[in-house]
Amino acid sequence: MYIQEAAEKAVRENKMMFRKNGMQIYGKIIIGILPTDSYATCLIAKLKEGKVVDIMCHWNPTSNDLMADDWELVDRPPQKEWPEDKLNRFEIFNT
Fold first, then answer.
1. pTM above 0.85, yes or no
2. Could you tell me which residue ranges the Thoeris anti-defense 2-like domain spans (predicted)?
3. 37: CB partners within 8 A, 6+ apart
4. Contact present, 20 and 74 (Cβ < 8 Å)
5. Which residue from 49, 15, 10 is spatially nearest to 29, judged by alpha carbons?
6. What's the CA gap between 5 and 33, in Å, rounded?
7. In the structure, how many helices (H) and strands (E) does the chain have?
8. Residue 79: which domain range?
9. pLDDT tens track of the chain, all 95 residues?
10. Which residues lie below 8 Å from residue 20, measured CB to CB, with a gap of 6+?
11. Count of domains forming the chain
12. Which stretch of DSSP H or E encloses residue 64?
């Protein structure tokens, strides 16, 4: 699906989105995008075996990302399973 469809569905279903062809590393790690309504930016979660191992911000999509039709959704792990020390850095989790 295209990025707009993936973002709408991810928000509606409380999931994360990723590009199947561009955001997997060795098939085991997925870089998931968490769309937010925060002006802080979208969050990027590094998922390994379904668990969040790192959280980053300031994702800058390429033109290829914006035009791609290979966006998919992945389950968003419950917040209690995210690394606590990393969650505190983001306003979206502190409100």
1. no
2. 1-74
3. none
4. no
5. 49
6. 13
7. 3, 6
8. 3-93
9. 999 999 999 999 989 899 887 666 666 777 888 887 766 677 788 888 777 888 877 778 889 989 999 999 988 877 666 666 666 665 555 44
10. 70, 71, 72
11. 1
12. helix 63-67
